[in-house]
Amino acid sequence: MSFLELSKYKKQKNLYDYQIEDLNTIFKCFEESEEAANILYQLPTGGGKTVVFSEIARRYIEQTNKKVVVLTHRIELSVQTSKMLTGFGVTNKIINSEVKELRDQDEYTCFVAMVETLNNRLQEEKVEINNIGLVIIDEAHYNSFNKLFKYFDKSIILGVTATPLSSNIKLPMKNNYQKLIVGESIASLIKKNFLAKANVYNYDVSLQTLKLGINGDYTVKSSDELYGNQSMLGKLMTAYTEIAKGTKTLIFNNGINTSRYVYETFKKAGYNIRHLDNKNSSAERREILDWFSNTPDAILTSVSILTTGFDEPSVETIILNRATRSLTLYFQMIGRGSRVLPNKKEFTVIDMGNNVARFGMWNAPIDWQEIFHFPDFFLENIKNDEDIEREFVYEMPKALRAKFAKSENVDFDIKKEYKRVFALGLKSKTVLENSIEQHAQICVENAEDVFEARILAKQLKEEITFRVRQYSYCIMNNTKNYKEWLEEDYERKLRSSISKKFAAKM
User: Fold this and answer.
1) How far apart are CA 75 and CA 69, in angstroms?
2) What is the spatial distance between Cα 55 and Cα 79, in angstroms, rounded to a whole number?
3) How far apart are alpha carbons 112 and 463 in whole angstroms?
4) 28, 99, 332, 464: which sits with the fewest CB atoms below 10 Å from its CB?
């Protein structure tokens, strides 16, 4: 029987047109490929990958009388996958840590296995799974699955992922898969109302204190130091209050310490918030997620534990309270809010880690074929933090701007001023002198006395840091110690200028 024959196709579940089209493309590829072909299928988070590969399993079993193995890397995914397969009429068994031995398998046509468990059982020769024609690998960008390929060298292997970019830069996916099939794009799924539209807000953050680990992403320690300080916690609270207050919110952090600080900060402010990490027991996790699902204004702060195997369509706001250099993680985090509901066609993304500047908008076109075939080129061309920060444009927060209401203009363009000063042949320090003069002027204009003006000056610290950083880029001296000295000198001279201006008024 041809893989393309649809006459016996029964819809236990309703598949959408784009899913059926992808499914047919995959089966055509099976038919045209060699017996042991390795194929990779890409479909965005929320596009229904589990639905598609469950129907692939059902149809493959029906048409070949061979069996299917589905591999996952988390127990939650195993359970979800098993339920979906059952819904498609596929008799299946989960091979988890409780299955110590498996010999009799005639009653099952499909096995759903945790990768490490199956690998251990196969090594111990405690499991016999014969007549396997197809192996489906969920979240195939993880490299833990590669160790099992040797056991299925006579089978077709279908990897499924939203992001065909290996989690290990030293093990590119093109080494294990011969062909990539690209499914519907995020933009197309939004247009067809299968995914919600993301309204994105960026808060510029200086990330130059972050350090990269051996896995190519920012270390937890350096992230905790940055995102756990009072300044960043305050910025997070301001972002939530201005944009997402009262919405069901999911906050992603890079470290457990940061997540706990976020919890304590929001709890102290009276918000309905819980914290979740991988140290919570299964019972605690279920209770917290049930609370989150049933509480309209719930805020859940977590580490990356909820990036896969978690589906809560009622999420209204995603806050990326971390930076990442992982494209996969970027898409996974935002994807948690992209599910549509009858009363939900849009959701909010608040980026506190310059991630949008690094990777582009979540729904922007992306050439997955190029990334799959040339991953090194893509990784080498990810924007670095210094280049991103050079493009920052500071905008005074609304609450702070209200304190300078008597000043018609509070802006000062350091780069533009530097070009003007340079053209006049003046010393570069003139730029900061003029900036200090402008800051002093708006403080004096909006204060009754010198003490009130100095209090206003202290609230300009974030903008002072920004201006000093922009100045350091202009003069090409961007060392940490030099910028810290410039900031201290700037604040001292600002206080002095304010005092002189009030003395002149008297």
Assistant:
1) 15
2) 17
3) 54
4) 28
Let me know: does 227 contact 253? Beta carbons within 8 Å: yes
Q: First vs last Cα of the chain: how many Å apart? A: 97
Mean pLDDT value of segment 416-428: 93
From 298, 291, 244, select the one nearest 271 (Cα to Cα): 298
Whether the pLDDT of residue 121 is over 90: the answer is: no
Tell me, what's the pLDDT at 5? 36
The model's pLDDT over 257-272, given as tens digits with 9 standing for 90+, comes to 999 999 999 999 999 9
Q: Give the residue among 149, 162, 65, 46 at the shortest CA–CA distance from 110.
A: 65
With tokens 């236990």, the residue in question is 12
CA 382 to chain centre: 15
Residue written as tokens 């299964």? 282
pTM: 0.83
pLDDT at 93: 81
Q: How far apart are CA 210 and CA 218, in angstroms?
A: 6
* C-alpha–C-alpha distance, residues 322 and 24, integer Å: 39
Of 208, 181, 154, 166, the closest CA to residue 40 belongs to 181
How far does Cα 47 stand from its chain's mean position? Answer: 17
